[in-house]
Design brief:
The chain has one helix spanning 2-17; strands spanning 27-30, 36-43, 46-54, 82-90, 93-100, 105-114, 117-124, 127-135. By secondary structure, the chain is mainly β.
């Protein structure tokens, strides 16, 4: 009798740890403003995102990271720039770090995939902004 109770208790303990993982972030995502495509893929044991392609007219030589708070990084090209890193599963979504070359801000990122939509909430201090991107192909 005690043996059965121990097995039942063990089964209850195992069930929560086997909860479903959040939907996959992997893929190419078109930004909400239509200015670019971000490719999200594994990088080591975590996920990362890079600007795979800019869909806007760029200046000669390519768009640069002109608003970066680090003056030494302002000359790097935006296309190919890593803008998400250390993304790990968190509840029914993902959390990690992000960077916006549009305003030169680093932020805490919270991402959630639902179907072909990726909702990203970025927060700097108490101020947050949410955007929704669309999966490509």
């Amino acid at each position: 009798m005690i043996h059965r109770f121990a097995w039942a208790l063990a089964a209850l303990i195992v069930v929560p740890s086997s909860a479903a993982a959040p939907a996959s972030l992997s893929g190419r995502w078109k930004t909400d403003d239509g200015k670019g495509i971000v490719a999200v893929a594994p990088c080591g044991t975590k996920m990362c995102g890079r600007i795979a392609e800019l869909l806007i007219k760029e200046p000669a030589g390519g768009q640069r990271d002109e608003r970066n708070p680090d003056k030494a990084k302002r000359g790097r090209k935006v296309e190919g720039l890593q803008i998400y890193w250390d993304l790990v599963p968190h509840g029914d979504g993902w959390k990690g770090e992000g960077y916006s070359p549009e305003d030169g801000r680093y932020y805490k990122a919270h991402l959630r995939v639902k179907g072909n939509r990726l909702t990203m909430k970025g927060c700097v201090s108490l101020f947050c902004r949410t955007v929704t991107w669309t999966r490509m192909g």
